Amino acid sequence: MNTKVNIAGVEWKNPVTVASGTFGSGAEYADFVDLNRLGAVTTKGVANVPWAGNPTPRVAETYGGMMNAVGLQNPGIDVFCERDIPFLKKYDTKIIVNVCGRSEEDYCEVVERLADEDVDMLEINISCPNVKEGGIAFGQNPKAAEAITKAVKKYAKQPVIMKLSPNVTSIPEMAKAVEAGGADAVSLINTFTGMKIDIDRKKFVLANRTGGVSGPAIHPIAVRMVYEAAHAVKIPVIGMGGIAKAEDAIEMILAGASAVSVGTANFYNPAVTMEIVDGIEKYMEKYGFENVSDMVGIVE
Question: What are phi and psi of 6, to 5 degrees?
Fold first, then answer.
């Protein structure tokens, strides 16, 4: 039985990674999770300069999930290269760096800086709903998404994964746009834009008013969008959105995802990724799948 997957020429030992922003850059979880068991670690978003993020409160619980408006707080590329890459290199896992920016230049600057760093893949975040500039603007317009993909591809030495937003009219159209721009893979979905009001205080729960909704409540929608994207493009799809157990991950793979990413569940069950790796192996054994690739997209 072979759990290895090949995503854009990079071989992962299994199809499980973590969703950007839910795992820091691995150090916060290293006491709870054997990072060597993950197919890849996807880092928190990294910008060309430090970002302070949004004002607090910026996290709230919702029915079947949570909302966040962290706003991509991060220490910037210099600290990331000095501190986080050396930490992750100690483990036998692939490193995917999530890149954020407010303009095309911002993204390209970070991608260019990472060209000579020992990291395996880049995930370009054009879909954060909590950043006023850049981010979501690129992620909702197919022409802009294609243009930003083309721009980062000029500087990238590593394969480029474009992270798509669900806050669009047509996911297949967005997936095709970034594929046309030269993306090596797509990942989806990022969070849905939501809002919560405290009825006693008669105020917004989040200082940002709106936030990204994630968790089990969005899972069925994520499965549908992964299915649509996988049928629209020839490049690999990394599926995410409300994966909380092995069954959820397997569902994504059967829908067409070549790999999966686990986010919100890490917060309340730090061991969830390892449970999912084990669960996928058990499923393969039960149904006689030799390779993970034999399962990808078999539900038509």
Answer: -115, 115
- 2.30.29.30, 3.40.50.12780, 1.10.599.10, 3.20.20.70: CATH of 5-49+74-191+214-294: 3.20.20.70
Proportion of the chain above pLDDT 70, given as a percent: 97
CA angle, 220 then 224 then 227, to 5°: 135
Written as six digits, the tokens of 67 are: 């909302």
> Which sequence positions are flagged as catalytic?
128
DSSP state, 291? Answer: B
Spell out a b/e string for 267-278, using b for 16 or more CB atoms within 10 Å of the CB, else e: eeeeebbebbbe
d(CA 66, CA 264): 8
- Give the tens place of pLDDT for each residue, 206-261: 999 999 999 999 999 999 999 999 999 999 999 999 999 999 999 999 999 999 99
**Token code pair at residue 191:** 């969070």
**pLDDT tens digits along 124-170:** 999 776 655 555 668 889 999 999 999 999 999 999 999 999 999 99
